[in-house]
Amino acid sequence: MADNRQMWEKLGIDMEAHDALLGAIPALVEETFMRQENRPAKMDFFDFVLGDIHGIRVHELQEIKANGGKVIGTFCVYVPEEIILAAGGTCIGLCSGVDIGTAEAEKVLPRNICPMIKASLGFKMTKTCPYFESTDLVVGETTCDGKQKAWEILGEMTPTYVMELPAMKRDSSRRLWDSEVAAFKNAVEQTTGKKGTDDDLKKAIAKVNGKRRALQRLSATRQADPVPISGTDALLIEQIAFYDDVERFAAKTNELAEELEARVAAGEGVFPKGTPRLMISGTPMAVPNWKIPHIIETSGGALVVEESCTGQRYFRELVEESASDAMDAIADRYLKTDCACFSPNDERIENVIKLAKEYNVDGVVYTSLMFCGPYSVEYNKVKKALDAAGIPVIKIDTDYGMEDVGQIKTRIEAFIEQIKETVPAS
Ligand code: SF4
Ligand code: SF4
């Protein structure tokens, strides 16, 4: 701990604000994770990472930097981490899921903007995130309007590079995306001082695919009934995927998946067989935003899959390893991402239904962060498709505050009761 404090001071962290942030985490972790029953033993690694969330990995980043390495922070699953790795960089996800810094951010942003954007800028403005303070470059993208304007403000505070993301998926969009991916490679290489060769790219692709495969393997075990791991724990793992060392994370996730596969074979689970199975669909949930999964799983439901960037959208697609042109394969894989910022976005609607069927989902909790235009508007099409498939859905608009927990819990409990009335108990 003394080591941590020294490091945070060296990074220029606002110690008072940071103490307030970290002070709130243990009680939240106890309530959200530790009180769950029959957790898999191999969650121990992820609990350890969570228990020292601003310590051990941040120390590793300082060591990387002391040896000449560069840390590159990102806010979106559209930013190709393979390119960062190939150029010798370390990629860290910076999205924030907590209200710290919001008041400060509201000095430069309107109040009615998505909490993720406010919190991300707020972390920088209040100097409360040691990951942010470790970065040599941060990468924004032109996904939604709020984000693309926020990067202009962030750029006044820290070196920021912005990728232009097409809003459609036409041939001309693909050409724009190809040139953006190439320009991003140059920008990263200028920061790291190392050119990523074809061979480097291929190795990076194999590494990141390894991480995504491990997440796919873990996720596949959640198709079982009873489900061998809670959705709250699964979300934590999906969140840690954004900032842990790629190979270590893959190894630890595979170890956990092995334990879960054994549980499935033995018919063991964390909830009784026949517990209503729910899917979350919508905006991402960054650490430490565990509000909705925790509510679902303390209200009689089992969260079995996340149709979200902190979920399937992060690991569903792999980069083709046998492709002769690695950059083309990377551009191809990333443009398959089906964020609501695209129009039209039929791929996402199809994926929602496909996942609901694969995971034998009884109902969908559609979550939208407050003031998120793309996901909130796209609900209309998702609901129509779910209605047609006979799958009930409830829409929850929320933020990072805890004031609405009681009201959301009442709604989700009623939703689960309604499902129980229509789904025969097994
Ligand atoms: S929801 Fe869209 S903008 Fe947000 S991280 Fe995912 S792809 Fe990026
Ligand atoms: S949640 Fe919606 S508004 Fe917020 S950053 Fe993502 S796409 Fe933009």
Instruction: Calculate the terminal CA-CA distance, rounded to whole Å.
Output: 49 Å
Distinct ligands, ions and cofactors found in the model: iron/sulfur cluster
Helix content: 40-55%
Q: Choose one word for the global shape.
A: globular
Can you tell me the CATH class of the domain at 2-198? Alpha Beta
Radius of gyration, whole Å: 21 Å
Structural class: alpha/beta
* CATH fold naming of the domain at 2-198: Rossmann fold
How many strands appear in the DSSP assignment? 8
Which sequence of strands runs across the widest sheet?
Answer: 2-1-3-4
User: From the 3D coordinates, which CATH architecture of the domain at 2-198 would you assign?
Assistant: 3-Layer(aba) Sandwich
Largest sheet report = 4 strands, parallel
The helix/strand order is HHHHEHEHHEHEHHHHEHEHHHEHEH
What is the percentage of strand-forming residues? 5-15%
Low-confidence stretches: none
Number of helices: 18
Instruction: Give the mean pLDDT.
Output: 96
Write the layout of secondary structure elements.
Elements (H helix, E strand, L loop, with lengths): L1 H9 L4 H20 L9 H8 L4 H11 L3 E5 L6 H6 L2 E5 L8 H4 L9 H12 L10 E5 L3 H10 L5 E4 L7 H22 L5 H24 L9 H10 L5 H21 L10 E6 L8 H7 L4 E6 L4 H4 L10 H9 L11 H13 L4 E7 L3 H17 L3 E6 L6 H18 L4
Parallel strand pairs: 1-2, 1-3, 3-4, 5-6, 5-7, 7-8
Helix pairs in contact: 9-15, 10-12, 13-18, 16-17
The protein binds iron/sulfur cluster (2 copies).
One iron/sulfur cluster binds next to α7, α8 and α17.
